[in-house]
Specification:
alpha/beta, Hect, E3 ligase catalytic domain, Hect, E3 ligase catalytic fold, 2 domains, 4-stranded mixed sheet, 12 helices, 12% strand, disordered C terminus
Length: 251
Amino acid sequence: QIHFPIALFKKLKGEKCHLADLEDVEPNIWLSLQKLLSWSPTTDDPNREFEDTFCLNFAVSYDFFGEMRTVGLKPGGESLPVNFDGRSEYVDLYCKWLLDTSVERQFRQLAEGFGLVVDSALWSLLTAQEAHLALCSEPELDFEDLRRGARYEGYGGGEAYVGALWEILEGFDLSQRKRFLAFVTGCDRAPLGGLHELRLVIRKTGEEPIDRLPTAHTCFKMLDLPQYSCKEKLRWKLLSAIENSEGFGLE
């Protein structure tokens, strides 16, 4: 699964990118630009002090297959110093160059190809944030949110066994969480509204003595869970089920 930055979806939706969008694309450059904006002068001449400290012009240099090239961020920018009053303009122009101008030709081709694959009225209804969540999901899977939307059949939401189950699930690492989601829903990503939107159903299907593994019905987002004798056995059975399932889970 490839994680695309939200800046890509903003561009595909025709939305303007800003400095905040740069953090996911070029975190080091984003941090440097943030420092420019937060810099505080210590003399009575902040413009001169800023110029002497950072020695910047309204231009950017980049490596083009081993050849260093410099391009102005605005007309005459190569010889125009950036001072304290102009630092915000410099940051805006730098972001525009990096996220738009420098990749204009490549992005145009990508957008044309994307339009051939995704030609749906639904796409026009999504914001960039919603499109990003739908296609890339969130890097973190909040199982506390999954618990908030859960329902139970045969178990009480407040009983100790259910509490032990959630302690196990919330202790999973990201890989195990994705496997569990794929096991019970057929998809390892969170829906747009968050994991509580899944309305996971946890159904009691027997109790000790019992040796079978938990099973899942992905169409109904239902986990069939026997009541094992202890938390350790519950964890072992649950991990065995999700790590050995294929496709849409065990039935």
